[in-house]
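Teaching assistant's notes for section 4

Start the section by putting this record on the projector. Ask students to predict, before seeing the second block, whether FAD-dependent oxidoreductase will look compact or extended. Collect guesses on the board.
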Amino acid sequence: MAAQARIVRAERMPASVHVPVAIVGAGACGLVAAIALRDAGVDCVLLERDAVPSGSTALSSGFIPAAGTGAQAAQGIVDSVEGFAQDVLAKSKGTAAPHLVQAYTQAAAPALDSLADHGLRFSVLDNFLYPGHRVHRMHTLPQRTGAALVAALHDAATRAGADVLASAHVVELWVGADDRILGVGFLRPDGTLEHLACDVLLLACNGFGGNPALVRDLLPEMREATFAGHAGNDGSAILWGQALDAALADLGGYQGHGSWVVPQGALMTWAVMMQGGVQLNTQGQRFHDEKLGYSEAAVEVLRQPGGVAWNVFGDAQLALAREFPDFRNAEGAGALRTARDTRELAAVLGCEESALAPEIHRFGPPFHAVRVTGALFHTQGGLDIDARCRVRRRDGAPFPNLLAAGGAARGVSGNAVWGYLSGNGLLSAVAGGWIAAQTAVQLAAKEVKA
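Reveal the predicted structure now:
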């Protein structure tokens, strides 16, 4: 097992500081859990490896799917938890864990509504539908970025009284009798190893997309793909789980994206595809149905000559794209090419004019094009958990005080790239963090009584 993810077996924890709940990772999952814990009057410490909380959340678009929220009601959007769950299951072709689909789709709305009480003002994107969603349910802050979301959550958590310890890289889980977690050991920037004891531990840390060896073994179709996620996705949760003989699940599930702008290295919104844009390869051919989803599009793009494609669209789609900060940044870096006619478009793509797919006549001229590749963003498999986010042993029994959610745990995308419904990552993070907090409150109360 890698030195960065150790299990230490001991009778007691050599720590001078004790906290009811310790949380590994201060992304959306950990921060939502911390806010909910403080709402319940429970003290907690978040241990974040970076100097400033970011993680996969900061690299995302920051859009959270939820059904039955106050934000939806304010915009006159009629939705239901049942419909949301059906969409999640439909996208995964029925392979997503049913108990988590039910738990997460039920928890998403109360989680978001509770965040509104902490000053996070969500609105719903209602000018287009993301793949697989029958209803407008993508919630966003005004800035429409993941960085703004994690910053707002961080601010809310600290104002609620949660302690966030940054530059604290957790490398040890201390485990006592009956696999009870005693606490954690974490490295400080100067190399000092410090310890923190806890009654309950929540792993809200990471997936394994940034671990080349695990990607090569578990996601072979993405072994050569660009990893566009956070470096903290090093697979620590899986390595700890293996050492504890915990159950793992859905390790073949992940979120890819077929619209990673190259060479600028930025994410281009899939809204352009949903509103009529097409993807063409360097031979001018359209090679898949873009509306099936951006996750599986990553694999389709990587299969094309050179592993690249061009997003081609018209003026109307360009106006929509410019509503998103990531696209504006990419455009400012020179990613956008504009062609006055099919001859110029063929020259941009490097193909014969006669080879251009007929679908381009849905729009333009003029034609706009952005060069993209397929990328791996984050994994959707991990520690197996029950509906209360308790980590399970191989026999299905839960560990006494070990919880996991977000990237550390299995999600609701099944075991393949095509099972990812837009927003499933933040659904697992936000709803999972909220559920884990409720469970932690109960477990911590038991420790006090004991």
